[in-house]
Amino acid sequence: MTTTAAPPKPKVSADEARAVAEAAREEQWAAPSFVRDLFLGTLRMDLIHPYPLQDPAEAERAKPFLDKLHHLLATVDSDKIDREGEIPPTVVQGLKDIGAFGIKIPKEYGGLGLSQLSYMKAIELVSSVDGSVTALLSAHQSIGVPQPLKMFGSEAQKKKYFPRLATGAVSAFALTEPNVGSDPAAMETTAELTPDGNAWILNGEKLWCTNGTIAELFVVMARTPSKVVGGKEKKQITAFIVEASSPGVKVAHRCHFMGLKALYNGVITFTNVRVPKENVLWGEGKGLKLALITLNTGRLTLPISAVACGKRCLEISREWADERVQWGRKIGQHDAVAQMIGTMAANTFAMEAVAELCGALADRGNSDIRLEAAMAKLYNSEAGWRIIDDTVQVRGGRGYETADSLRARGEKPVPVERMLRDFRINLIFEGSSEIMHLFIAREAVDKHLQVAGDVVMPGKTTAQRLSGLIRSALFYGWWYPSRWIGWGFWPKYGEFGTLATHVRFVERSARRLARNVFHAMIRFGPKLELRQGVLFRLVDVGSELFAMAATCARAQRLRTDDPATGAHAVKVADVFCRQARGRVKGKFHGLWRNEDVPTYTIAQEVLRGEHQWLEKGMVEVDYGR
Ligand SMILES: Cc1cc2nc3c(=O)[nH]c(=O)nc-3n(C[C@H](O)[C@H](O)[C@H](O)COP(=O)(O)OP(=O)(O)OC[C@H]3O[C@@H](n4cnc5c(N)ncnc54)[C@H](O)[C@@H]3O)c2cc1C
């Protein structure tokens, strides 16, 4: 049984939580970022256009593996996996045999040595079949030991662990605790150095650790002794590679969920676990930064999974809407259903444009993709969820019925119900949608904070404020007026043909976005961070503009390289952009005319119990029983 305690105790102040998050940020922007510039009002199409494609030599290298994976996946029975809550050992062994646990691990250490984009192509194939298998592979190599080891491991660590990991020693990432969800500042797992300095002693409990029940190796985040910097305590979080076989490591409970029934996810306890000092990853106190940097590419698994889901939903909806006749017509000819299917096609194309762009940028290595990856995660998981929801609707009652039940009464076992259950978690883990909004907002206003932070942030000295004022006057005196000027009309971007109008819209809207970010900073000052409704709309505008730019660039590339597909792509991209423009205008409008304040007020009244009258008329349920 688990020792997990339930209700969260607020042990950490908002200031402390912010300080821990800030300390984990990558402060430098060593390479350009399309999205960062977008928020500053500059459209850098040169960073994403011509749309980067996979290097043909790399595609050739990946092909034999992808073919084997395809072949293996064709034998996977996902309904059985869902029903029994286990991935058959033959499937796991098959994946190990073809190298699927070491896709990105360099060849010299026994891995396949493939690129991020090739890894994503593999994940797309897996996700088109089974969410639990995706989670097994991705928890291992998107956030588990291989990725941080590749980025931050010492040569000795790589030599020791990569060969094991590549051949299928499953790994897991252990950050979450009962009181540590989105906010790591309250972390209670600790690591203390032994008196001889040779090892760390780990104590604590980790919750919801995917692969945790079968893992041979963990990346564990733990608090190490705080440092005092400038008279203030600075909390330290350190990452350790921990062997599951070490005395004191225990699987206390296997967790079960709404979907992903075969997730090997558990509560893992660490009691006086001795971890050799050589197993610290990167360095003492660098654990959270390591997790964040790892996630910059690690986060790209979910966006491509969402693409696979979109494609499968499109296939299911296309077949059913063309077959099912109601009220004298195929349901796909009724406008309401057609709207859903048209939108599904447009969004699937956009999601693929976003995900593959990020993968290609990651491989190219000359862009800072922290914002792009976070947006891809946010945008694709939300869009994917809407697509599945619509697919359930298109399938009607059959969308709600389980595949087994459909099969038992002689119908095609289309697993939309399972897909919906499996997909929902994507909006929660690897950074919930809310946390992704906040992360993007923080990075998006970074330039403004660098310039004007001393003016608007609390706790600054008079001297700091004065120098901040001078800096701001120098920067904004040029920057702000220039966000009003610029030609974003015909004939600019003519090479995009019929899509040029959308690219021009992105350019004009980027300037409008930058102005609005600035206006919001002036209007709300340091309180802007509390106005999440406003911040989230700004982020949503940025995400839509990024998706539009990626979509136009991809369609244009297809038109050049493959005119037949390209002509179709342009049509689909055009519909996506038309719809996205409507959403962008709505978000801009909502920035300054909204119901955020009264809604917040009602929510606080609800929390204080003032609207419990609304909850009358129910049978009382005692959840404690
Ligand atoms: C199936 C599954 C697999 C998982 N796998 C792993 C794993 O392998 N390793 C691991 O370490 N963890 C894992 N997790 C944990 C997962 O990453 C967390 O669930 C996630 O970080 C959210 O934390 P929480 O559930 O405690 O939510 P909380 O942080 O308590 O948040 C609850 C709600 O409040 C919102 N919220 C929180 N803070 C803010 C804020 N400042 N502003 C606005 N909204 C906010 C959240 O978005 C969410 O909607 C897994 C979880 C699940 C369910």
In this structure, how is the largest beta sheet organized? Answer: 4 strands, mixed
Ligands bound here? flavin-adenine dinucleotide
Strand order of the largest sheet: 1-4-5-8
Mean pLDDT across every amino acid position: 94
Radius of gyration (Å) = 25 Å
Strand content: 5-15%
Distance between the termini: 17 Å
Low-confidence stretches: none
**Structural class by helix and strand composition:** alpha+beta
User: What coarse outline follows from CA principal-axis ratios?
Assistant: globular
How would you name the oligomeric state of the polypeptide chains in this document? single chain
Into which percent range does the helicity of residues fall? 55-70%
Tally of strands: 10
| Contiguous helical run count | 23
Question: Features of this protein?
Answer:
625 residues; alpha+beta; four-stranded mixed sheet; four-stranded antiparallel sheet; 55% helix; globular; binds flavin-adenine dinucleotide
Describe this structure in words.
- The two termini are 17 Å apart.
- With 625 residues, this protein is of the alpha+beta class.
- Helices cover 55% and strands 11% of the residues.
- It has helices at residues 14-24, 34-39, 56-73, 78-84, 89-98, 116-127, 131-143, 146-152, 155-166, 287-298, 301-323, 335-364, 370-395, 397-400, 403-408, 416-423, 433-444, 446-456, 462-482, 500-524, 532-561, 563-592, 596-607, and strands at 171-174, 190-193, 199-210, 217-229, 232-243, 249-254, 265-276, 280-281, 325-326, 329-330.
- The strands form 3 sheets. Strands 1-4-5-8 form a 4-stranded mixed sheet. Strands 2-3-7-6 form a 4-stranded antiparallel sheet, covered by helices on one side. A two-stranded antiparallel sheet has the order 9-10.
- The protein contains 23 helices and 10 strands.
- Flavin-adenine dinucleotide binds next to strand 1, strand 3 and helix 17.
